[in-house]
Amino acid sequence: MWWIWRSRCQDIFQPADSWSDVKVAGLSRALNVELLSLNKGTVFQKFSVVTNFWSPPPMDYCKVDCDASIFRELHLVGFGCVLRNALGSWILGCNGTCPVWSIFRCKLLAIWNGLMLAWEAGCKKDLLCRNWEVNFSWINREAKSVADCLTKKGAHSNTDYCLWNASSDELDKLLRSDSSRID
After folding, report:
1. According to the lineage, what is the superkingdom (predicted)?
2. Residue 167, C-beta contacts closer than 8 angstroms, at least 6 positions apart
3. By C-alpha distance, which of 168, 166, 65, 83 is closest to 121?
């Protein structure tokens, strides 16, 4: 499944690399092997695929929202991350630029920076002691408006990494908007 997601991103952000017959056949074979290996003793869980609104973490948890975008026409790449509590309040944020890689690598950089942000904010115990469950799902831009705004600011900055200890007026407005329409 990862290969299909990766190829989908390649097609969106690198349209010159189209879906050839060889590529589709190879992806189908890889997916078949992956599903067969997953099906052996694995219980599948149903996860939401599309999220239209920001959803808070459980009480006493924090949530990292990350985003990365490539603005090809401007030759800009940025990432943004925000750490929020269960009430949707700002804890910490970061953003910056990264080299013009594939969108997959940019998103991975955003996730890594988000985890480092949680670590720096003192969530070390949470990161080390909890049973991890990692889910990748499509989240509409409206549901991650704060991370999206930080991403755009990061892409237009000349800074590899900028730590945001406090929110700005613009980000506060987005935080309030997110919290008023929780999914």
Report:
1. Eukaryota
2. 90, 93, 175
3. 83
Domain limits, CATH 3.30.420, in the chain = 54-180
Residue 13 CA: distances (Å) to CA of 9, 52, 71, 124, 159: 6, 22, 10, 35, 23
Residues with Cβ < 8 Å from 179, sequence gap 6 or more?
54, 87, 88
Is 104 or 15 the better-scoring residue by pLDDT? Answer: 104
Query: Amino acid identity of 47?
Result: F
54-180, what's its fold? Nucleotidyltransferase; domain 5 (3.30.420)
Beta strands 50-51 and 138-139 are parallel
CA distance 110 to 88: 20
Q: Is the confidence at residue 146, as pLDDT, over 70?
A: yes
> Residue 132: which residues within 8 A CB-CB, separation 6 or more?
none
Cβ atoms 27, 4 nearer than 8 A: yes
C-alpha 27 chain-centroid distance: 24
Report pTM.
Answer: 0.68
